[in-house]
Amino acid sequence: MDLKTTLVGIVGERTGYPAAMLDLDLNIEADLGIDSIKRVEILGAFQRACPALLQQRLQDAMESLSRIKTLRGILDLATAAEAAPAVAAAPAPLPAAAPPLTAAPTAPLVVPRFLIRPVELPLSRTTPYTPGERVVVITDDERGTAAALAAAIRERGGRAVLLRHRSQPGPTGEDVLTADLADPERVAMVLDLVRRAHGPIGGLVHLLPLGLDPDPGEIGAVAWKSRLDIEVRCLFLLARAARPDFKDAGRSGRLVAATAMGGAYGLDLPDGRGFFAGQAGVTGLVKTLAREWPGTGCKVIDFEAAAAPARRAALVLQEIAAGDDEVEVGYRGPRRLVLRPLPADLEAETPVRLAPDSSWVVLVTGGARGITAEIAQEIAARYRPTLILAGRSPLPDREESPSTARLGTHDEIKAALIDDLLRAAKPATPSAVEAACRRIEQDRDIRRHLEAMRRAGATVRYVQLDVRDGEAVARLLDGLYLEYGRIDGVIHGAGVIEDRRVEDKTTESFDRVYGTKVDGALALVRGLRPEELKFFVLFSSVAGRFGNAGQCDYAAANETLDALALQLDRVWPGRVVSINWGPWNTGMASAGIQERFAARGVQLVPPGGGRPAFIHEIERGARGEAVIVLGDGPWRQYAAAAVPHSPAGTPSPRQELPLLNGLPLQAGEPGTVEVTRMLDPATDLFLLDHQMDGRPVLPAAVAMELGRSWPCRISASSTASSSRTVPGRSGCARAPPLSPIPSVWILRSTSRSSTRNRGASSTRPAFSWGSGCRRRRAPRRRCTTRAPSR
Predict the structure, then answer these.
(1) Which of 156, 158, 157 is nearest to 137 (CA)?
(2) φ/ψ of residue 554, rounded to 5
(3) CA 131 to chain centre
(4) Burial of residue 546 (number of CB atoms within 10 Å: 0-12, 13-18, 19+)
(5) How far apart are CA 74 and CA 58, in angstroms?
(6) d(Cα 622, Cα 354) in Å, to the nearest integer?
(7) Per-residue CA distances from 285 to 379, 543, 571, 626, 762 (Å)
């Protein structure tokens, strides 16, 4: 088999370039214009074209193959693998033919809507921390948390080193190093010092965010950038530099970060308490690392601003040892919280709160292409306002060049450009051809969308603008206020994607992707007049909310937008919302990308559903609903734990169970399921209004509500023995009397399998109460005593 001919042929087939243009030493990305998705497709096709034994060897080396920068490098590795001696036991061959691609399912036209809510999720078990042989590196908050954590690790026989952020590197004491942690070279240098003194790294704990002002208020652009450098960018640099250590550490590796955004990442904060929205970038970065490094235990922990350093250190150590699958947790008082997307569809009867009209002036960043253009087109058709579209691309000429105007597809345009270059004997690289082809297609999109908006009756103006340029954004906003006297709505949809895994991501690329979204949003916030603004919409992504391999910078930026929306929603009079869109089915996703979405269960949002979903959100969405998800995917699994469902095929009215929403069902005694509900005066404020002799007690009305809610809660679960709700009277007639607080209540029901095994035909779930404290006798009720540790 001629490996070179096979590889060059596959690359030519996938890219459209003739073999003469495919120099083996050209950079795959920079010169050939092959992105990470197309690289995977090419490597997969090359692997399947090889003999069975070589297929297996290439599969074993796939991680190395995916990082090689030239075709010659791929060919050299494949040649070496082919020449390697055979092992005694031959591996099973891979399928000779590629399996058919499975397109990602497209969501129905009614796009599901979810709200992000904190729900309580106690640790199922507490595991003692056992130090490994590798050193744990801790960025020092210098307020006591890092020092307490390092001491706890050492007391248990482990090794820990503190890193402090300073302009100059060097030791400052025993097991303490200093460095400029926002400088890539300094970060690499200080980790080398750690390795030389202590051996390989097994853990990285980023506590620097805990050392800065948790509520800085309004700060300028320079202060924002300074904080982001040492909170978000620092973690990216440390993780990138420590990747070889984590790869070698395997499943014993731990990467943990901490923030101080109130214990629930800015959600449901009491009035008067603020947080620094930039810390949310840490969460997006960690969630992406959890996707890219499945063998490493990655976690981010959010704390209240006033939490004591010793308690923070103890909880960090507890979460390091827990080894559970939760990546994003928080602590508010004694409660351990996680964030869940809970269904929150806007019903047809939801009142209209905003009524845009043709007098409105709406600014849209992100240009006249992609999702922002689809949304702007819908706004034009519905309201015919004045639309100001701002994008990086220059406004194209009114007419396309005759040489390409008649061509339709991407491949046709590319082939014509290549033919022109060859006839003219002009030197050209594939990347230059790809860029020219992309420019033609982008210009077509801009012309098409602008024309459609104007035909709809809107007044449309296009402005070339880089939203990262704060001064240019300020000039634009000042000019619009001067010309129109108003700006009624703003949609910040600008963004760039440069997918790379953390270890392959350059600092410049990280700054560019992160800055386009975050710097642009901050520039808008500083220049807008919120007292006159009707709505401010930030386009975020499920890539930030749930993490996505290859998009650490994009996820960090989108999470920051979510947190910024939470902040602004509390102080601006108009509607502020960050929309975490699922991927749109705009025809731009390749078969490979769609296959990846399908494998993860992510549905593509059809434009015919996404456009009206946005309008619905603007017109009917409420203040306080500042972070939403629009789109369907595997995150729906959390709905079953929070919202009851009717039998298949029938719509169910939305049923709120505020005392039980989000609490998971767990296996109890044989044949039963149960849910644990912590009652705490710090969060269940009704307890403070119901006291005896100065001690909070459980009101009977709350016990009755729990009795009513429990059958409803389990009827939503596939493990429950009933799909009917028990009438309220049966759940309340013998409600437990008043009980001292604090206590833990365990509600239990016979599981479906147990009922089926006994041959029972009753449609009512049996249930019992359990309390953490002794109660007066409750006839015919089984009580399990479980008291919280004090």
Answers:
(1) 158
(2) -65, -40
(3) 30
(4) buried
(5) 10
(6) 10
(7) 33, 10, 27, 21, 50
For residue 540, being part of any structural domain is answered with yes
pLDDT value for 786:
37
Q: What pLDDT sits at residue 365?
A: 97
Same domain, 689 and 633: no
Adjacent-strand bridge partners of 449 = none
Q: Give the whole-angstrom CA distance, residue 673 versus residue 77.
A: 54
Residue 604: what residue type? L
Q: Are 630 and 728 part of one and the same domain?
A: no
257 part of a folded domain:
no
Smallest CA-to-CA distance from 743 within 766, 769, 768 is with 769
What is the crossing angle of helices 3-15 and 36-49, to 10°? 140
Q: Taking a C-beta distance cutoff of 8 angstroms, is the pair 379, 356 a contact? A: yes
Q: How many Cα neighbours within 13 Å face the side chain of 648?
A: 1
CA 358 vs CA 384, 456, 458, 460, 644: distances in Å: 5, 12, 8, 12, 42
- Residues 688 and 626 both lie in one domain: no
* Torsion sign (Cα): 406, 434, 371, 110: positive
User: Quick one: which of 461, 335, 340, 446 has its CA closest to 393?
Assistant: 446
Q: With respect to residue 104, please indicate whether it lies within any of the assigned structural domains.
A: no
Amino acid identity, residue 309? Answer: P
Q: Token digits for 508?
A: 């410049």
pLDDT at 82: 85
pTM of the model: 0.75
Name the residue type at position 29. E
Q: Which residue type, as a one-letter code, is found at position 504?
A: D
CA pair distance 106, 658, nearest whole angstrom: 33
pLDDT of residue 16: 80
d(CA 450, CA 452): 5
pLDDT along the chain (790 residues), means of 10: 89 83 84 78 89 87 84 90 66 42 56 94 85 95 96 96 85 84 95 95 97 80 88 97 95 96 93 87 97 95 95 95 91 94 87 95 92 95 97 88 82 83 72 84 91 96 95 97 98 92 94 95 96 97 91 96 96 96 74 67 90 96 95 80 38 50 55 62 60 70 72 50 33 39 48 38 33 34 36
* Helix runs in 659-739, H state only: 700-715, 728-732
Quote the pLDDT of residue 145.
97
Contacts of 268 (CB under 8 A, 6+ apart): 118
Burial pattern 17-48, b for ≥16 Cβ within 10 A else e, equals: beeebbeeebebbebbbbbbbbbbbbbbbbbb
Instruction: List the domain range (segments joined by +) for residue 46.
Output: 3-83
What are φ and ψ of residue 8, in 5° steps?
A: -65, -35
Q: For residue 290, is it within any domain?
A: no
Euclidean distance between CA atoms 32 and 25, whole angstroms: 10
Q: What is the number of domains present in the chain?
A: 3
C-alpha–C-alpha distance, residues 622 and 620, integer Å: 6
Q: Are the C-beta atoms of 604 and 612 separated by less than 8 Å?
A: no
Angle between helix 470-484 and helix 507-527 axes, rounded to 10 deg: 30
Residues 6+ apart with CB under 8 A from 648: none
Taking the C-alpha atoms of residue 254 and residue 612, their distance in angstroms, rounded to an integer, is: 43
